[in-house]
Design a protein that fits this description.
- The protein is an alpha+beta fold.
- The protein has 2 domains: 49 residues, no CATH class; 43 residues, no CATH class.
- The radius of gyration is 18 Å and the shape is elongated.
- It starts with a strand and ends with a strand.
- The mean pLDDT is 76.
């Protein structure tokens, strides 16, 4: 098991728990939910009132889209911006693509004149 936590300047704490391959995802979700329930009693009342959520996610990619410019007319920056403006939201609206838009589609440069867009499988 691997645990990663990130605290934002907006007061939001995001923790990601990664289990060993082959772990039953339903069993892992129950274990995480049980630990969260145990921790709730220790949290300040303001935090409990605002709420703590857990979300099961699979790291399996559903689709990888490559945007390229075969003739070199468009550079990586142009392709990345195009993907953000025209591709990312369209993919995020697909049913089953995930719950949080920020984590649904990842856009990464992957070489001269190309951009890779990854769409993880949503649960």
């Amino acid at each position: 098991m691997y645990l990663k936590s990130v605290a934002g300047s907006d007061g939001v704490l995001q923790m990601t728990v990664t289990f060993r391959p082959g772990t039953d995802p339903d069993d892992a979700a129950v274990k995480v939910q049980n630990r969260v329930s145990q921790a709730l009693a220790r949290l300040p009342e303001d935090v409990r009132r605002q709420g703590v959520t857990t979300q099961k996610q699979s790291p399996t990619f559903l689709m990888v889209v490559h945007l390229t410019s075969p003739d070199g007319r468009y550079d990586t920056l142009y392709l990345r911006n195009y993907a953000r403006l025209h591709v990312k939201d369209a993919l995020a609206r697909l049913q089953g693509s995930g719950r949080r838009r920020s984590s649904v589609v990842a856009i990464t440069p992957c070489g001269p004149g190309s951009t890779r867009t990854r769409l993880p499988r949503g649960d």
